[in-house]
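User: Please predict the structure of the protein below. I'd like the answer in structure-token form so I can feed it into my own downstream comparison script.

Assistant: Understood. Taking the following sequence of 351 residues as input:
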Amino acid sequence: MNAPSPWWSPHVHADRRPFLAARGRITAAARDFFRSRAFTEVESAVLQVSPGNEAHLHAFTTELQPPDGTRSRLYLHTSPEFACKKLLTAGERKIFDFARVFRNRERGALHHPEFTLLEWYRAEETYEAVMDDCAALLAAAAHAAGTRRLAFRDRIATPFAESERMTVAEAFARFANVDLLATVSADATDRDALAAAVTTAGIRVAADDTWADVFSRVLVERIEPNLGVGRPTILYEYPVAEAALARPMAHDPRVAERFELYACGVELANGFGELTDAAELRRRFEAEMAEKERLHGERYPLDEDFLTALAAMPPASGVALGFDRLVMLLTGAQRIEQVLWTPVVERGNPM
């Protein structure tokens, strides 16, 4: 059997070029969108002392060698988040970044080891404001792409429709018949209670699954396929155990100011009302790195400079949007490589 042609073969490039041309129009429209709202475009450094501190994200490592011969380890960032938040501390108020980011051990129709995150932040504004940004950006991007729909596989959504808004607890009740918040408190989770409810709902639970494992399985198997069908969905108020870098909700400390935007069953964006409690964030990071060491035998350092800056950061909200996925959904592409100008090539696999 003949090997597939590389991406730079003229006939392969000709097939991909309409997607790439649309990408250019969508990029220009996104920049216009933010500039018209008085955002400043920033460019965060790729090389960082810490790539981020999430247990299930895997970074690329490299080595810094100054002229004096000393050596230190650096990482290619998995997100520009730490750098952007330092800029908020520095005095920037509204910023956006088309950031090339890098995540190892990720490859598939929707995943690529090098991709683009469009991140933006608003100082002194609520996370509902960046939810509204997401809806308006979808419409602007669709106009630029010349389409009236988002599509992926057998699912379609209208980018101009008002987004459905649903709490995570509502989604668990609707799609899995599980009372999620009955298994959550402000500072703990009840693994056995969630496992029992999920088993009753007919979802497999392994003996060594943690509460987070069970939560993720329900989300992936029962909830995500139903989100963003017909119109985009904003899933919000994640349990505080899944808060990442989001602050707890004032009205209910069991949940956090975290949301995700979905279209056609695909996660497009992840946003927070940003946590600025450096001590609490350090605790979360250390817990994540302990879990990473348990699962994968490694941990990443904490960015102490970031934690210092965070203590002086103003209240803010921000969101990271998978830009390549947005282009895919607007153009009907079925694999992320179709919308990347020069995909990363694995040895023996040209695409």
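That's the full token string. The longest helix spans residues 10-35.
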